[in-house]
Write a structure and sequence with these properties.
Radius of gyration: 18 Å
Strand order of the largest sheet: 4-3-5
Distance between the termini: 24 Å
CATH class of the largest domain: Alpha Beta
Largest sheet: 3 strands, antiparallel
Number of strands: 8
CATH topology of the largest domain: Rossmann fold
Strand content: 15-25%
Helix content: 25-40%
Number of domains: 2
CATH superfamily of the largest domain: TPP-binding domain
Shape: elongated
């Protein structure tokens, strides 16, 4: 599961965290920009409210911020490499609810297709990659993905 979501949506739905590749990070916790140590937001919030200081890493002194990729920050190398490997090695690449306009993530369906995968796109609006896809459904994701699912 390759995602640009930063809200833990996929993990909260039951996808094991190790199966989720978060290209834009995660807004449910913070990390040190220098050593990548993880911090829980509630702990940082209490510290910030108590001292009115920007959090510093207790391990290396680096700046701590929400673990999302901000404008100007590079994409996370390990996650991008893993996403590219998964895209290149898959049989079916399924795009759900993406305009496919934000690169480098928008290049992953193209990589998958060039590597021999079938490409399916489910998105409310047309995308520039619809012409490459083997199947395109312009519809809402929820109804399409739950059709035929009991319950």
């Amino acid at each position: 599961m390759i995602t640009q979501n930063v809200d833990n949506l996929h993990q909260d739905s039951g996808v094991p965290p190790g199966k989720v590749i978060e290209l834009h990070g995660n807004a449910t916790y913070a990390t040190c920009l220098d050593c990548a140590r993880r911090y829980e937001l509630e702990t940082l919030k209490q510290s910030f409210l108590g001292r009115d200081e920007i959090p510093a890493c207790g391990h290396c002194g680096g700046l701590v911020k929400v673990a999302t990729i901000s404008f100007g920050q590079p994409m996370p190398e390990a996650q991008m490499a893993r996403a590219e490997a998964e895209a290149a090695g898959c049989d079916l690449f399924l795009v759900l609810g993406s305009s496919l306009q934000v690169y480098p993530a928008a290049g992953l369906p193209i990589l998958a297709k060039r590597s021999g995968a079938m490409l399916a796109i489910v998105n409310r609006d047309p995308t520039d990659q619809d012409r490459l896809a083997d199947l395109v459904l312009h519809d809402e994701i929820g109804p399409v993905m739950s059709e035929g699912v009991p319950g």
